[in-house]
Amino acid sequence: MPSSSEVEQAVGVSRAGRRSHPLLRYLGIRFGISVLLLWGVTVITFVLANLVPANPAAAALGEKAASDPKVVQAFNEAHGFDKPVVVQYFIYLGNLLRGNLGTSTQTHNPVTEDLGVAFPATIELALFVIVFSIIIGLGLGLIAALRHNRFSDQIIRVFSLIGISIPTFWLAVAFFFVFFYLLGWAPGTGRLSPAATAPPHVTGMYTVDSLLAGQWDTFGDALSHLILPGAVLTLYTVGLLVRFTRSGVLDVLSQDYVKAARAKGLPAHTVVFRYILRGSLLPILTIVGLAFGSLLSGTVLTEQVFNWGGIGQYAYKAATTLDLPAIMGVGLIVGVVYIAINFVIDVVYGFIDPRVRVR
Q1: Which residues form the ABC transmembrane type-1 domain (predicted)?
Q2: Alpha helices, DSSP H only, in the chain?
């Protein structure tokens, strides 16, 4: 018969085993929630696409062909539009599990193939924008907070206000007109010049693929085409990051642990980067993730102005032509992007937030 102390010790070990690796349990829970959200995205995308009060046959075939009942019937049978909505959803879900997003009624290509061309273009633009936005936005926001209510703070606040206030579509048109049409400082539309040849396909991002292939001329041409649309989107994103960084840093500056660090006589850069910036990192990470997700989900008007050929422009064309498979494919990709970004942010939270990370 075990003694009471042995029983308590065994219970303690059992509880310790159950409580081990709390970070892994946290990540497992977040992953499970992400899977449920992904299923919800498929439902919402399908329902919204099928609630559109229009005739996809007329949009795809034209009015003349759509007036022939036999042609319409053949079209509906080919795309499964003649089946009940519930059956259509389960067919759609089964195809998704096999990696089949359907066939575009406009391009007549598999939607996965079209997205495989459009999405890398958006990723290339989004990475260009978010890298420069983080460097500039965090730097200016930190300076503004550390020089609170001084002249430099006022100038940076005005700059950030301008960045988030000007509509991006207007700014895109203005940049195109001034820097391409009037001054000729940057290329106009597209991802490459008409005379340039696309590099061998590896990632679909021309700058990366041209570097991998050692085609420096193509890399320079692709990079120059990134400048105008990248500058338009960077100005808005920087304005957003500056305001959140400044607000987050100001909240941390008054904390006792920052005052204690300064009282110890620690170097200024140590106090700023190890205590102040790290303490304000969580809200900054949140807004960086949301901004990056917004860029990855497609900036429709900017891509349309610069004929970028990304997922935003693809979504615009799909919506205007009532291409339901393409619309559902874009909706699914956008949902997956935001779910993935949020999951990554949750993972980072688990590592840097002591309230989540249990030693």
Answers
A1: 119-349
A2: 4-19, 22-50, 56-61, 63-66, 69-79, 85-97, 111-146, 151-165, 168-175, 206-213, 216-253, 256-263, 268-270, 277-279, 281-296, 300-305, 311-320, 324-352
Distances (CA, A) of 280 to 144, 249, 271: 14, 6, 13
CA 3 → CA 7, 9, 13, 14, 15, distances in Å?
6, 10, 15, 17, 18
CATH number for the domain including 178? 1.10.3720.10
| 276 found inside a domain | yes
Distances (CA, A) of 84 to 74, 76, 80, 88, 239: 16, 12, 9, 6, 48
Assigned domain for 134 exists: yes
pLDDT value for 100: 82
Looking at the structure of the chain, the number of domains it has is: 1
How remote is the C-alpha of 198 from its chain's centroid?
25
The confidence band for 66, taking pLDDT boundaries of 50, 70 and 90, is low
Q: Examine residue 184 and state whether it is found in any structural domain, yes or no.
A: yes
Q: Is 103 strand, coil or helix?
A: strand
Range of the domain at 127: 119-321
- Confirm if 101 and 329 have CB atoms less than 8 A apart: yes
Q: How confident is the model at residue 57 (pLDDT cuts 50, 70, 90)?
A: low
Instruction: Please indicate, yes or no, whether the overall pTM of this predicted structure exceeds 0.90.
Output: no
Helix 216-253 vs helix 111-146: angle between axes, to the nearest 10 degrees? Answer: 50
Asked if residue 10 belongs to a domain, the reply is no
Q: What's the pLDDT band for 53 if we cut at 50, 70, 90?
A: low
Q: With contact defined as beta carbons under 8 Å apart, do 106 and 317 qualify?
A: yes
